[in-house]
């Protein structure tokens, strides 16, 4: 009990100190610059997440406001995967956010994700791609008068990305086909393409499309394509291949699966052994064993942080492991990530 109290007290002190520094820097950047002041989210991304703010983040937030959604503070991370920067709350259990990968370069664009209890769902590679998709869907699915407000909110950035009528001019007729050819790769569009092939009885095309979904570089860091491929293989009676695909999916971060861990573990034919193995690895003994076997100390701590997040995804208990995850990042030499993980309003 005494140990927990000391840790919690230290955590609160760090959070308050980081919060004061963030507020001071935000005020300074707003008052001393002759250019347009940074928004709260842009200041947070620059000062706390130590990343480059997306160029058109303000326009994306304006679009959500036009849709009647309330923008939330970037530090309102309670109960969320700690690697995310919340933008808007969509429903009680769902938020739209940016994902800050732990070892990403500061110039690397952050993907847009939907944050749910057990992890994240990939939405777009970057903010511009997400705005582009929103405008296409508004043009295709909404009457002229109701979609204009969204186009106005997108401003000049929106005009550069998409003009009303571009979808009709393309003569592609299918929204998913247009998105994949003209905007970018999106998991839901690719998955619907596979499902349509299966419904039409074209299993070969379904397998080819599912395999393309998992192609290296399409969705780096995300396990969802491999998890979906495992489900497709199982549905088509290829249980042995499905098991291998599921086991491959579980080698990536569990919070990127796009489904519950248990669902994929069942296809992989794992019992509790994987969870037990991870729990053993996040002990001091487990880390010591890895280092003795030749793993660099910094890498051992970094890997431990990843395992802790995987275990937290099982029940969505992110806040319970914050201290240990942050400490692991510190030991791995990632002090900025440690501060970002701990920060809360």
UniProtKB/TrEMBL annotation:
Domain of life: Eukaryota
PANTHER family for the chain: CYCLIN DELTA-3
Protein name: Cyclin delta-3
């Amino acid at each position: 009990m005494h140990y927990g109290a000391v840790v919690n007290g230290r955590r609160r002190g760090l959070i308050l100190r980081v919060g004061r520094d963030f507020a001071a820097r935000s005020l300074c950047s707003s008052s001393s610059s002759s250019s347009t002041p940074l928004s709260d989210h842009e200041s947070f991304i620059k000062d706390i997440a130590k990343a480059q703010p997306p160029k058109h983040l303000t326009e994306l937030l304006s679009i959500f406001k036009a849709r009647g959604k309330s923008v939330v503070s970037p530090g309102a991370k309670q109960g969320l995967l700690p690697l995310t920067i919340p933008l808007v709350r969509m429903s009680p259990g769902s938020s739209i956010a940016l994902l800050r990968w732990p070892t990403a370069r500061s110039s690397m664009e952050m993907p847009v994700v939907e944050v749910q209890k057990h992890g994240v769902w990939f939405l777009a590679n970057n903010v511009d791609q997400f705005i582009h998709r929103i405008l296409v869907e508004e043009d295709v699915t909404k009457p002229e008068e109701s979609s204009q407000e969204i186009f106005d909110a997108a401003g000049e950035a929106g005009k550069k990305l998409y003009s009303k009528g571009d979808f009709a001019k393309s003569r592609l007729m299918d929204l998913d086909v247009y998105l994949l050819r003209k905007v970018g790769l999106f998991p839901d569009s690719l998955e619907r393409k596979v499902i349509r092939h299966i419904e039409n009885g074209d299993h070969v095309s379904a397998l080819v499309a599912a395999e393309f979904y998992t192609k290296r570089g399409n969705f780096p860091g995300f396990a969802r394509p491999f998890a979906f491929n495992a489900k497709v293989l199982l549905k088509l009676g290829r249980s042995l291949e499905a098991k291998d695909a599921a086991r491959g999916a579980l080698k990536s971060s569990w919070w990127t699966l796009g489904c519950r861990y248990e669902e994929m573990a069942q296809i992989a034919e794992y019992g509790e052994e994987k969870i037990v193995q991870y729990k053993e690895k996040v002990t001091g003994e487990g880390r010591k064993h890895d280092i003795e076997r030749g793993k660099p100390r910094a890498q051992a701590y970094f890997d431990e942080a990843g395992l802790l997040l995987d275990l937290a995804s099982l029940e969505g208990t992110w806040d319970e492991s914050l201290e240990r995850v942050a400490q692991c990042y510190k030991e791995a030499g990632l002090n900025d990530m440690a501060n970002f993980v701990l920060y809360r309003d």
